[in-house]
Amino acid sequence: MSRRRKKPKDRKRFRGIYILPNLITTASLFAGFYAIIESINGGFEIAAMAILVSLVLDGLDGRIARITNSASSFGVQYDSLADLVAFGVAPGLLVYLWALKPYGRYGWVAAFLFMVCGALRLARFNVQIGEIDPRYFNGLPIPAAATMVATSILMYHDLGEWAFSRHVFILIMIYILSFLMVSNIKFYSFKKFELFKRKPFPVLVGAVLLFLVIAIEPKLMGCLLMAAYVISGPLLSLLLLWKRRNLENSHDEESLESKTSEAS
């Protein structure tokens, strides 16, 4: 029997992978793994910082892939697996060992719920690429949920003795974040916000003021900004729902007026 020849496009498909974006994804994966190690060793603040480093690297790999025209299906799948470790497993284990361990079974169930909802969120995002409005995320992104956990831990360490009891608050927060990740609530994606295009002067002034405020209290402001983003999702969904209903009502009124005019 003669061996079937591969088509030229098949050989081109398996020619290789892009190095630079996948190296950055690997660095993000390493930061997430390091956060797991530090969580086990009791270095909760360092683990939270490692998750934030992974967040920065996760934003870089996709942008560099688009700039260098090196995006690939392999990179998308590898990035999702790295995100599951860095933003699902790492913050789940971190928050369990830091605040949820006293709850026993209920504590580790909450941590597992956070991780599995993050995995479901990633899987849904992968299959919905190109099918939903790119201006919005369908559900809270798993990097944002992990950042909320990390900044909350950093804020508690910064407040010290002034921090209120963290256990009940964190348990409630984990359940809320888990629900938001698998919900259909819309969150702004910032993908249409172009930094390299001309903007009104007040936008620059606002960016400078925001930078100064964050520089004064980075841990506290980081947590507050992430909390504002989490709250913005339900508010945005209500606004979009209100606009949709107003548009439907206006269409109904127009159709009723047209029918009335035709009948007369």
Report on this structure.
The protein is built from nine helices and two strands, in the order H-H-H-H-H-E-H-H-E-H-H. The chain is mainly alpha-helical. It has a single domain (15-191, 198-258), classed as Four Helix Bundle (Hemerythrin (Met), subunit A), CATH 1.20.120.1760. A two-stranded antiparallel sheet has the order 1-2. Helix 3 (44-67) runs antiparallel to helix 6 and helix 5 runs parallel beside helix 7 (166-182). Keywords: Lipid biosynthesis, Lipid metabolism, Membrane, Phospholipid biosynthesis, Phospholipid metabolism, Transferase, Transmembrane, Transmembrane helix. It catalyses: a CDP-1,2-diacyl-sn-glycerol + L-serine = a 1,2-diacyl-sn-glycero-3-phospho-L-serine + CMP + H(+). It is a multi-pass membrane protein. It is an enzyme of class 2 (transferase).
Layout of strands and helices, then pairs:
Blueprint: H1 8-13, H2 19-40, H3 44-67, H4 73-100, H5 105-127, E1 136-138, H6 142-159, H7 166-182, E2 186-188, H8 201-216, H9 218-263
Antiparallel strand pairs: 1-2
Helix pairs in contact: 2-3, 2-4, 3-4, 3-6, 4-5, 4-6, 5-7, 6-7, 6-9, 8-9
EC number: 2.7.8.8
InterPro entries: CDP-alcohol_PTase-I, CDP-diaglyc--ser_O-PTrfase, CDP-OH_P_trans, CDP-OH_PTrfase_TM_dom, CDP_ALCOHOL_P_TRANSF_CS
Transmembrane segments: 16-37, 43-60, 81-100, 106-124, 136-156, 168-189, 201-218, 224-242
Describe what is shown at a glance.
This protein has helices at 8-13, 19-40, 44-67, 73-100, 105-127, 142-159, 166-182, 201-216, 218-263; strands at residues 136-138, 186-188. The chain is mostly helical and 264 residues long. The chain has one domain (15-191, 198-258): Four Helix Bundle (Hemerythrin (Met), subunit A).
